[in-house]
Amino acid sequence: MVTPWSGWHTDVTAAVNPPFASILRGVTIPPYGGDTFWTNLVAAYRGMSPTMRGFVDGLRAVHANVARANPQPGQQYNERIQRRPLASEHPLVSVHAETGERVLFASPSYIKSIVGLMPREGQKLLELIWEHVTRPEYTVRFKWNPGDIAFWDNRSTSHLAPTDIFQSDFDRQLYRITLVGQPLVGVDGRPSTAIEGVPILSAAEELRMMAAAE
Questions:
Q1: Which of 19, 84, 115, 185 is 20 to 30 A from residue 145's alpha carbon, by CA?
Q2: Which of 66, 12, 6 lies closest to 184 in space, CA to CA?
Q3: Is 9 an active-site residue?
């Protein structure tokens, strides 16, 4: 079912240490289509009522990667998930490591449940939150040009990749760098915890571990 929050996500929140930032550089850009959206999760938190902020401050959510029902041709996403399943518990409201701001850390594509709530309770709360964080006043739409660079804080934003490019006859190429992050910390000082899988490592760390195992 397509909803207003379908496709919105914060990168790899199924890991106990989601990436803290990403850099995307546009190289081949179609003449139209292919725009990217971001939403500000700090502003979304501030936009909630004081009563709701007090409620969500103490909640934690389970994030997991799951296989896509209808993967796009040429994507190996489902195969990667089967090789390396990930699931973690993160605070629903995290405290930003540098700014100290509170972040409504709600990634629609990864959150599966709210700890301590009945499934229907959690689902209705999540739908309310996801509808809130994707409101126009918290979002920006970025139209790419060749050579453009987007650098975003993955701990305080969610984004929406374009879907109109799949029906386009034009090429679209962008190159990405993802920066390794740390577990999040909630309002109560509790960090994220891993349920399944291991933390994300940099390419150099992965190679060192492989060499040590040989």
A1: 19
A2: 12
A3: yes
